[in-house]
Amino acid sequence: MFTHVHELQFEAKPDAPDPAFARRFQEVLGGKWGEMTVAMQYLYQGWNCRLPGKYKDMLLDIGTEELAHVEMITTMIGRLLDAAPMSEDDAKGKTLKAEWATSNPQHQLETGGGGYPKDSNGVPWSGAFVTASGNLYADFMLNATAEMQGRLQVARLYHMTDDKGVHNLIRFLLTRDHMHQMMWLRAVEELKADGLDQVPVPAAFDLDQEHDEFARLYVHTSDGPNAMDGAWAQGEAYDGSGPITIEETPRAHGDRPSLPPGDPRLYGTPPVDPQTLLQRAKDLL
Amino acid sequence: MFTHVHELQFEAKPDAPDPAFARRFQEVLGGKWGEMTVAMQYLYQGWNCRLPGKYKDMLLDIGTEELAHVEMITTMIGRLLDAAPMSEDDAKGKTLKAEWATSNPQHQLETGGGGYPKDSNGVPWSGAFVTASGNLYADFMLNATAEMQGRLQVARLYHMTDDKGVHNLIRFLLTRDHMHQMMWLRAVEELKADGLDQVPVPAAFDLDQEHDEFARLYVHTSDGPNAMDGAWAQGEAYDGSGPITIEETPRAHGDRPSLPPGDPRLYGTPPVDPQTLLQRAKDLL
Amino acid sequence: MFTHVHELQFEAKPDAPDPAFARRFQEVLGGKWGEMTVAMQYLYQGWNCRLPGKYKDMLLDIGTEELAHVEMITTMIGRLLDAAPMSEDDAKGKTLKAEWATSNPQHQLETGGGGYPKDSNGVPWSGAFVTASGNLYADFMLNATAEMQGRLQVARLYHMTDDKGVHNLIRFLLTRDHMHQMMWLRAVEELKADGLDQVPVPAAFDLDQEHDEFARLYVHTSDGPNAMDGAWAQGEAYDGSGPITIEETPRAHGDRPSLPPGDPRLYGTPPVDPQTLLQRAKDLL
Amino acid sequence: MFTHVHELQFEAKPDAPDPAFARRFQEVLGGKWGEMTVAMQYLYQGWNCRLPGKYKDMLLDIGTEELAHVEMITTMIGRLLDAAPMSEDDAKGKTLKAEWATSNPQHQLETGGGGYPKDSNGVPWSGAFVTASGNLYADFMLNATAEMQGRLQVARLYHMTDDKGVHNLIRFLLTRDHMHQMMWLRAVEELKADGLDQVPVPAAFDLDQEHDEFARLYVHTSDGPNAMDGAWAQGEAYDGSGPITIEETPRAHGDRPSLPPGDPRLYGTPPVDPQTLLQRAKDLL
Amino acid sequence: MFTHVHELQFEAKPDAPDPAFARRFQEVLGGKWGEMTVAMQYLYQGWNCRLPGKYKDMLLDIGTEELAHVEMITTMIGRLLDAAPMSEDDAKGKTLKAEWATSNPQHQLETGGGGYPKDSNGVPWSGAFVTASGNLYADFMLNATAEMQGRLQVARLYHMTDDKGVHNLIRFLLTRDHMHQMMWLRAVEELKADGLDQVPVPAAFDLDQEHDEFARLYVHTSDGPNAMDGAWAQGEAYDGSGPITIEETPRAHGDRPSLPPGDPRLYGTPPVDPQTLLQRAKDLL
Amino acid sequence: MFTHVHELQFEAKPDAPDPAFARRFQEVLGGKWGEMTVAMQYLYQGWNCRLPGKYKDMLLDIGTEELAHVEMITTMIGRLLDAAPMSEDDAKGKTLKAEWATSNPQHQLETGGGGYPKDSNGVPWSGAFVTASGNLYADFMLNATAEMQGRLQVARLYHMTDDKGVHNLIRFLLTRDHMHQMMWLRAVEELKADGLDQVPVPAAFDLDQEHDEFARLYVHTSDGPNAMDGAWAQGEAYDGSGPITIEETPRAHGDRPSLPPGDPRLYGTPPVDPQTLLQRAKDLL
To answer: Which helix (H) or strand (E) holds D219?
Structure first.
């Protein structure tokens, strides 16, 4: 259960409106790697966590904080949209004129000057962006990634404006994305130390079931000359199970597939005599 | 540029048809973490890579291999759909009867007995599943995650069938997802060793711009009693920049936001005297 | 069954082309609250209506009229796109130059100069926008809302152009959205008067099943000081069933949830001894 | 800014697992009219509200409560998924056998036994479901509708299970949807009483701009004999502006549209001599 | 402008309810190749047609007829949903028991027993399914295809039920899809005869701009031994412009691409000395 | 199984960056008719093809070639995005200034300067764009159409830039789309010649099942005076089965539909006495 205070976690005041930047800022609100995604992802992971204790508790802590980030960015976008021109004529003689062309029409038509759960092109946020698999190792890795992708986008946004107030919030977001990267990476280490999982994830699946001849095989399917210069294609495998080998020329280990004739009632193009088939299909009616 | 051979990378022959499993197998073909995603993700990352050499070459190697995985699973699904009942009556007295209820109607109506780029509920694969950010550290972390989420789903699928032929292919997929996990994790290490990036990603953004008071602060927004028992909330921060501190009771560091009255031409509910506003809006017409 | 005449319900002739406005006009054609939505929503509600007579007949009347609105806006968009510049150079020295930057590229690439069922950012109209629940009270309330949201957007569009011809059609749309608001609100009243439903919708569900202690309880989860100044938090409840009470400090009425360990075959992170679990999962293979 | 407690607002414990019902319960979690929608919709409306005071404060109260509903339903779904069969064989001899056929495969493959932001068919929740227009009248009407549609779906769910624990939570949801219906309807009345808006919404748009001849005209486009028996087609209009009139046979008030020839560079099918056009297009190259 | 009569174009009465078939029938209502698509596609093509006369008039004729098909299928689905069981218990002892497992939960939860614009898996119809390109040749070819794909799906549906009433409607749909296939193919021929377009579409683009060495070249990128046995790889090209030639071993005609270093403000992984780059990015702040 | 070489099938080098054109070029990469669609469509058709031999082999040839087109356009977009301005200020004094306004923000925020599988408005490519029906006639017709729609869009793109390098690639694409149109049309002819299918597709469905009175009937539902001037409404039908007839005034051949009262547990608006119904629903609880 949640409670809310009106004060923001951090200040969200631009020095001046900027509808073009408002459009761009939507990316880290409602884009695939935006705050909607991390807030919902961590909360669903927390709610679904079947391991009581520190991991579950931490997930709900960070997820709840991310809701505050959704709130701050939405507030900032609302302020960036003040006084936005509604037409080219309206923009004339205003410093915001050029802004008109590159702003998001729905910021006026749909929201009347507010942020919403869509990306920088106005494509709606999708519930498919949330992953809560029940496996904490795989999910914490994704969470660390999400903070990296998110921080990367915020760092790019930094260079799309000179507004001191916007920079102030961006600097806060960069800081928290930094902290959260560290937390998720630590949590991955702790899962390993606690013996809960390890590479290959999920470790509980019996490795004897794997086809060992493909387990450390680098398959060189493209002709890039340097592909095997990295540690991923040399020496001992990451899990210490043996040496990596190379399939220099990729080989097919399976047959040419041939599918049997389909059910005539599906009217696929027949691999058998069509007259016969025609008759069979008609007979069925 | 690509070339293709008809032989499969590995065998994809079930012992018997199973339309219910065919529906489930779609998840690792056209779901968010399926083979369509990793094939396209690695290829786009490779094509967009602005750093010539080993990383780019490796991306295109693995991406090209994943296309072969798309092909194998599609072939397997086609074979699993042979002889699927078309109605309840049709299913009577067949071993496939129960299958009818839990199969995917589009496997007959749309594809006439074949795999397609949709998930296990028939929701289409989306280009939004692909991330190619230009930052290899963030992307390799995601790739490692994708192999974990993918291997997790394939491991779950293992228990949804007893078919030896299907198990054989699943065991191959588990093996390759294992190998690929190791490769992406090694590649992350190598990026660090090559001095190309590090936590916090992207490292090239000047850390002095961050708000240091929030840089190692654990914010305890939920009341889980064990949230701070993990290494993520204790001792030195992951990047060695100083000790983690705790905000036991979360504090707001910003004001209560108040948005100015909107443009009357947007017809939002007005914070000023409505009669005045009404008149102003009318005057504008 | 439908018949069609080529004449439009109302004139749809702009004074001059305006590709930037054409992009914006798409919102009320193919956006969530656009004419595609109301046309399809009213028709599906009409076709699915299980109560013969005035309500069903009226739904089909208005739904059929909305198809004419789809047609008029599409026609207007086609005319607004005449002579649109195809590149920046092409736009030079034309009054339409600035338009180029803010127009929709698909209006040339995809439609060759015509309207289509997408919104002002080019996001496709979705069948999920249509609601036809079978409950006329809930649906008529939604229909009234749709006319309000639609009229709001059209009113905003009015200020995005000075074109007299466009204004003429916009004024027609505003007029009909006004008329339709009145019709749906009357229809809601009539449903009540006819004894067919009432608040709480659906009224046929036995109120004794409700938890009475929560039935008139205002829960103050946020710290806004004025939240309880409205009639919604004071005096008798809207349905006359008793006085509203306040939960000033929100209380949890349920336990801390704890989920049992998952099936080991799902490879979630285990709440039991991992070695044991590992063994159990392996034994299963 | 939000804080969270682990205790639930209300109990969410089923008497027994039921994966088939878990699939159905997703509708009111991640469907168009589910708790994700109302939580996000009220919060965005609150954050974007430009009128400080009671309305904004109330929006944030109810939005924050709805987050607790998201949490309860997710928890319930997690519990309903315990011990779900993973295959037909697995289901044999269990009371859950029939459940297998009608459950959601992603409840195992993707979430490992947990709720997620998708609907009862596994279609992801969309940010497009959220409307926050800046006009409180239109939005409160939608909110009232959302509570009606939501309560209707919960009432239907009641009859899809006999589980006492599930019924207990459903009864709580029905109760709160009842309370919230009353609150939004009161809020609409209060907006009117406060002179902030009225029918036609938005009232601030100058009515003189409307085409009065269409302002109270019922257009009888379908041949339903009873369409005009309702109050919507008789007597004084809802806003008291005059009597309703009927267009018994719908008339076109516009011309047959004729679009000019397109730009030859768009290669539409030409309305002029094709040879001439062919030459013109070639000349352009 | 449209008018509507309540009578259906053809009878839509099943002999008995069948919720499982109702789910499947949705495919040809709201699927990619369903009646929603063809109705909207032909109408948008007609409205956008810039060539007055027979083609435009015919498009609006067929588009309007397709609206009647939407209506009939929706009506049929409503009737198929009568008396559908709401739970497994409810289904006991009824002939509809097995139906329960394979029906669509939204047919009860969302529509209360009616058809809606979604496909057989409940995925919403999308405006992206509509193509109206302005080029009649390309569009008529698509329309012919749509009638083929649609007729194929209806033919498959025929075998999913024995219901005489459903068969009666299906036979009507098959008949009209047959007629419409013939009409669109005739229309393609007439466009050619009228000199309006021809292969390659669009013919107005100057063929001299093409790279002639690739204009009749069959590229053998896969190792299928029979690929070149067809007329597509032999003799004179379809347009009579010369003989087809074969590139037996596919050759690259372009260089290995190498992208320049990205803007350091985008924080991509750098192809230049990272320390230098780090400094440059910091200097920018 | 695939292999890859780094060299491109054709050169993809622009003379100069152009982010506005990069946005537009996305349409033929990730739009409905773009290279992602044809590559995936032909490969899935090939993999699912149940008729071994020339058709299957040819599908895999062309599908594999289309992957090279995806690669070339992605490469071209990456190069067009070099040096793109990140803000209005940044654009000042640069020839790329105007470009800023009409570029795609995600080309910087999401991809850091690269192409991705979305259309020219940033809407993700969808797996629903792929059709592989199992019926080669219907699919080859669609493939021919796809090449026409694709070539049409590329021809339009030609006029959106003067860049010689871009033109060079566009000319290659136009050439291959021309060749592929010819191949698919030949393949349709060959299917007919081989007796595998014919109009009406699918021909194997027994024509005696059709309602002959509707099989050659032109239904004149719209009042366009020239609709019946085409060959589609005159003389012998396309398949030679008899003369076309005209239904000048469209007639309903079915009854006015009337749906029975719904299940009271669905709480639809009742067609029977509401008090009775209310009681029945309550009794059920």
So the answer is: strand D217-219
Q: Quick one: pLDDT at residue B272?
A: 64
Mutant choice from E222, E226, E284 vs F, greatest count of F C-beta within 10 A:
E222
Residues 6+ apart with CB under 8 A from E13: E76, E79, E165, E168
Average pLDDT value for chain B: 93
Chains that touch A (3 or more CB pairs under 8 A): B, C, D, E, F
Kindly report, residue by residue over A137-152, the tens digit of the pLDDT.
999 999 999 999 999 9
Cβ proximity of F204 and A264 under 8 Å: yes
C-alpha B35, offset from chain centre = 11
Query: Average pLDDT of B216-240?
Result: 95
Sequence-distant (≥ 6) Cβ neighbours of residue E236 within 8 angstroms: E242, E243, E244
CB–CB contact F50 B2 (8 Å): no
Q: b/e per residue, B93-109, with b = 16+ CB within 10 A?
A: eeebebbbbbbbbbbbb
Tokens of B70: 């798309």
ω into residue C200 within 30 of 0, thus cis? yes
Q: Cβ separation of F138 and E158 shorter than 8 Å? A: no
CA distance C151 to chain E (A): 21
CB-based contact, A109 to chain D, within 8 Å:
no
Task: List pLDDT tens digits, range E237-264.
Answer: 999 999 999 999 999 999 999 999 999 9
pLDDT, tens digit (0-9, with 9 covering 90-100), for C169-187: 999 999 999 999 999 999 9
- Phi, psi dihedrals of residue B66, rounded to the nearest 5°: -65, -30
CA distance B175 to E54: 62
Q: Which two tokens stand for residue F111?
A: 């991809």
Token pair in block for residue F65: 């070639």
* Cα dist from F89 to A99, A107, F85, whole Å: 11, 22, 8
pLDDT tens by residue, D206-229: 999 999 999 999 999 999 999 999
CB-based contacts of B248, cutoff 8 Å, min separation 6: B220
pLDDT value at D277 more than 60: no
Which is it for strands D217-219 and D2-4: parallel, antiparallel or unpaired? unpaired
Alpha-carbon distances of B43 from B2, D265, F70, rounded to whole Å? 12, 34, 10
**Which D positions 60-89 lie with beta carbon below 8 A of chain B?**
86-89
Residue C245's pLDDT is 96
Q: Which of A4, A48, A61 sits opposite D1 (nearest CB)?
A: A4
E-state strands within chain B: 2-4, 217-219, 245-247
Residues in contact with E200: Cβ distance below 8 Å, sequence separation at least 6, in sequence order:
E207, E239, F148, F151, F174, F177, F178, F181, F182
Q: What band does D270 get if pLDDT is binned at 50, 70 and 90?
A: confident
Residue A94 has pLDDT above 80, yes or no: no
Block residue for tokens 């004897």: A208
Q: Quick one: tokens of F77?
A: 């977009």
Residues 139-158 of F with CB under 8 A from B: none
Nearest-CA distance F223 → chain B (Å):
35
Neighbouring CB atoms inside 10 A of B273's CB total 10
In this predicted model, what pLDDT tens digit does every residue of E109-147 receive, in sequence order?
999 999 999 999 999 999 999 999 999 999 999 999 999
Interface mutation target, options A56, A107, A145, A259, chain B, most CBs of B under 10 Å? A145
Task: Report the C-alpha gap between F251 and E9 in whole angstroms.
Answer: 7
> Tokens representing F167?
């033109």
What are the counts of helices (DSSP H) followed by strands (DSSP E) for chain A? 10, 3
Once rounded to an integer, what is the mean pLDDT over residues C93-103? 72
- Residue A281, pLDDT above cutoff 90: no
Mean pLDDT, rounded, for B234-262? 94
